[in-house]
Amino acid sequence: MNLTTAASLPKPAPRASDPATLAGEIIERLTYRIGKNAAAAKAHDWLAASILVVRDRIIDSWIASTQETYEAGAKRVYYLSLEFLIGRLMRDAVSNLGLMEAMREALSSLGVDIDLIRELEPDAALGNGGLGRLAACFMESMATVDVPAYGYGIRYVNGMFRQEISDGWQVELPETWLAHGNNWEFERREASYEIGFGGVVELAAADGSGDHARHWKPHDRFIATAYDTPVVGWRGERVNTLRLWTAQPIDPILLDAFNAGDHIGALRESNQAEALTRVLYPADATPAGQELRLRQEYFFSSASLQDITRRHLQYFGDLRTLPDKAAIQLNDTHPAVAVAELMRILIDHHDLGFDEAWDVTRRTFSYTNHTLLPEALESWPVPLFERLLPRHMQLVYAINAKLLIEARKDRGFDDGAISAISLIDEGGDRRVRMGNLAFAGSHSVNGVSALHTELMKETVFADLHKLYPDRINNKTNGITPRRWLMQCNPGLTSLLREAIGDAFLDDAEALQALKPFAEDSAFQEKFAAVKRANKVVLSNLLRDRMGLKIDPDALFDTQIKRIHEYKRQLLNIVEAVALYDQIRSHPERDWVPRVKLFGGKAAPSYHNAKLIIKLANDVARVINHDPAVQGMLKVAFVPNYNVSLAEIMMPAADLSEQISTAGMEASGTGNMKFALNGALTIGTLDGANVEMRDHVGAENIKIFGLTAAQVSEWRSGGYQPRKVIEASRELSQALSAIQSGVFSPDDRDRYRDLIQGLYDHDWFMVAADFDAYHAAQRELDTLWGDQPQWRAQAIRNVAGMGWFSSDRTIRQYASEIWKVL
């Protein structure tokens, strides 16, 4: 049956969603889908049955959304991302459908607590940090603002690792989120595509013009099969699709080899297929790791494009109209190989000429850049790229020739500019620049904050910007207020509804109505009570998980994000050591009780990042066991930071640490989540901090340190960090203590090289910004002592954060880039 026939069939009546009906359906699913009766059911059985009941209601809207898009011939958005950090889905879906109270009552009537069973849902390990969480927020917002969309990624079996801390060190363990299946997803066997690697490119017979078609004959071939997860928008009016690919071998077992005794060789294809979708970001410090990562990126890009072009041909018949009906967004450089893949599909399989294919490709793709770090703009060794993707290498060279001829002949670019825009980096071992490929192959290239976008024009894409001056634009990131306020902070949500009504539930910018309440003492007391209740929840969690007792009345100072030197967890730790020394040296002062909380994962091959985690734990061990500072300072590194943990830590935070080296953080979204939940921000003028200052008011955010321009000037002007360190008593003493082994008596040289790096080059300006950071922290101590003023500033932060909704961001993408609204 096709969609045309299906459209003529009667649509099912809306399902009743009263508590009695829901309870009956839960028992029915428990019995006939789980195979248990209520007396024998365990908590995970109740969870599975509840998900199935909710899922049925989603499916009705899902099918209707797909049908309406088809009938309208509407343009679709396709969001390609190697990460989707979606987190747990049950609360998100139930809340967006407006079923939370009905489900709570239904389960309660069966003797089940919804809050307990939803904690058993695995936290999907499909992302690493901000980029993946942004993709998840965007998918939810696209459904909310009625943009027809598919998200495309990989169905990682283990995904990002589960982090444990052993003797202070990060230990990476498999994250087994799929061990017991996934009740949210649907296998789509009909959406299966062959993906190839290696092999040779052959010439077909010449056509009448004498041109030879190219035919790629891969050596390794796999099957990509789709698994679909519905993504529910606010109030359930649209449901979009997250389509994730899993890899399967064409021949699961080579029986001849197996029967001949070659048991390992017989499973070679199965093992290779399994490796493709096993983990997110395999360590690429080795050639094998680099090859696997490139294979992953091509695997999901090719499967997605084959799916997109198949759907377009099914509905519209001619790929020349692809840009009119499909907008493909590349989320960073990971799917950039899709540019060459679409060219291959158009030229080799649908007989478009090169120029026509290039026009279709560029009008279809748009590219979001997320970093100014040159090493994060992926590039691949030419021999590796050519061996794995020989036809794509030919097309990259052809695209590059077109690009460079245009720049040289039409625009008069000199050798330096030509070298900068080339898709091939000739500076050393030749490499394919994926950022340049994504830029060249897209009609739109956007940054993710105002500062980041301007710096893109001046740094990583300066020459490409000169070649295409109208291509770069800004789309400042946002977060979904459903998950990051309404769901994770129900106490604050209830208080806001009581104060300003329900308008902000549908339009986050209505939070501006909260501003007059900032000075209202009665509202302040209620606001503080909500914050303290959230802090008690976190305190209990840390006690249960880590055996750590913390005072919920202390200032909770929180830095939770990916561990990287530019994010400067090291600056925070060094300042904690300086504060520790001050408290011990001056016990007579009225110190503000402070709890410094850290969380985040370090890439397995990133030595310094893992060393910073160890340092945080070493410092915590010493400080937390010193009776001289008891009640005044505690430090904790909370293991296995993920979405679910963020949903507890962010509502409990008093102070949000956004202290990256200015000019290096593209945007940040954690900064937005903290502020939306009533935390003050201490940060540099970096990423979206700049715009947050504008929206919440400069007096309600604590900015310190060098600006991006000053960082650049210092780096190019002969910055001598040793002199800066020696001129700062607090900094020099703190660094000396760390370097000499005060916090690592079992290995006094553990941090010698890490600290010596600050003396020798300090690329991330830890020493340069230390004194300003330390002074800003003491100013915040003073502000904490004036609780009415602290609360007023926190309330103004909540009121000013509505603009940072991902709904606003998506509307801008939709109208200005995708042209779908």
TrEMBL record:
Subcellular localization: Cytoplasm
Lineage: Bacteria, Pseudomonadati, Pseudomonadota, Alphaproteobacteria, Sphingomonadales
Catalytic activity: [(1->4)-alpha-D-glucosyl](n) + phosphate = [(1->4)-alpha-D-glucosyl](n-1) + alpha-D-glucose 1-phosphate
Family the entry assigns: Belongs to the glycogen phosphorylase family.
A GO cellular component annotation in the UniProt record: cytoplasm
Keyword check for Transport: no
A single MF term (Gene Ontology): glycogen phosphorylase activity
Gene3D superfamilies: Glycogen Phosphorylase B
Gene Ontology annotations of biological process type: glycogen catabolic process
Modified residues (N6-(pyridoxal phosphate)lysine): 673
Pfam families given in the database record: Phosphorylase (PF00343)
Domain of life assignment: Bacteria
Species of provenance: Sphingomonas crocodyli
Annotated protein name in UniProt: Alpha-1,4 glucan phosphorylase
Function: Allosteric enzyme that catalyzes the rate-limiting step in glycogen catabolism, the phosphorolytic cleavage of glycogen to produce glucose-1-phosphate, and plays a central role in maintaining cellular and organismal glucose homeostasis. Phosphorylase is an important allosteric enzyme in carbohydrate metabolism. Enzymes from different sources differ in their regulatory mechanisms and in their natural substrates. However, all known phosphorylases share catalytic and structural properties.
EC number: 2.4.1.1
Cofactor: pyridoxal 5'-phosphate
Alphabetically ordered keywords of this record: Allosteric enzyme, Carbohydrate metabolism, Cytoplasm, Glycosyltransferase, Pyridoxal phosphate, Transferase
